[in-house]
From TrEMBL:
Protein name: Myb-related protein 308-like
GO terms, molecular function: transcription cis-regulatory region binding
CDD domains assigned: SANT (cd00167)
Species of origin: Populus alba x Populus x berolinensis
UniProtKB keywords: DNA-binding, Nucleus, Repeat, Transcription, Transcription regulation
Residues of the Myb-like domain: 9-61, 62-112
Amino acid sequence: MGRSPCCEKEHTNKGAWTKEEDERLINYIKAHGEGCWRSLPKAAGLLRCGKSCRLRWINYLRPDLKRGNFSDEEDELIINLHSLLGNKWSLIAARIPGRTDNEIKNYWNTHIKRKLFSRGIDPQTHRPLKSTTTTNSTNNKNSRLDTKRSPDFQLEEQNYSFLQVQPEFMISHMIKKENNSSIIKVGGSSDSTEDSNSSSGVTTELEVYPDHKLVNLELSIGLPCESLVSSINNLKQAKQQEQEEVVTHQLFETSTTPTSSAPVSVHEAACLCYKLGFKNSQACSSCNAMEKTVTSDNLHRFY
DNA sequence: AAAGTGGTCAACCGCTCAGCT
DNA sequence: AAGCTGAGCGGTTGACCACTT
């Protein structure tokens, strides 16, 4: 369809921002607030593209930005969030106060990837490197319909695929908590090269939740039980429309460091439910109807 | 000391999406 | 319904710097 450029490139500066440009941008936004980036450069007297102004403000000039090195807690949080959300840097950044998507993306590519490799973990799949080959082939199979299978089987396989990978996935991203103890351990296995299933003694996810020895770190993934069956039925009905897959993200949040002296911020529970593959992603309506409770662990949960 | 190499990160590019007309 | 526009996102680039040879 073709689009007009967001600005007249021949009349705009590019490259690094000068101190004067920064000051102009800061002063303008302080006076007029964010928004209307297209008209901002002219109004602020800047020879910059609106997109460039927005990026400079969001990634560098915003007063609430936390500069400096990432803490270990932030590292682990990013890893956990990435395991759930993938390269959705803006979603990850939204969960980490003071950090920008660009900053997290850069940090991921320059530090965390290496860190995970050194732990023997594939940064993309969050699985042990030695099983990456077979894992990828499995994931690829699930992410694309196998035309040799019956349509019903394909849909069910797709829908359950997240459950099939769930046990290993969950174990590596849960806090293991001793009963009646404040001592927690991150990860299901102290040895990342060891098979997490065998080392943890947890063989299926059904054994994970009921015994309460494993509690959710701050993130979990999976369909609410009661909505699972109806989701499958809905999928079957929708199969005539197009290929689709449903992934439900249910996000719980609590403190990752209960023993820390820093104040613990406990936010409202957020349910991130996305129906991937539909034209317009819509929040899971069933979660809105669910009752939220706060457990003794300060966990916000939906039931 | 100079050249080469690799790491870091700010900035840019191309694209998608949602809202408006 | 279709087209246009602004905003935002993720991937990529390139300048800069530190370290090594």
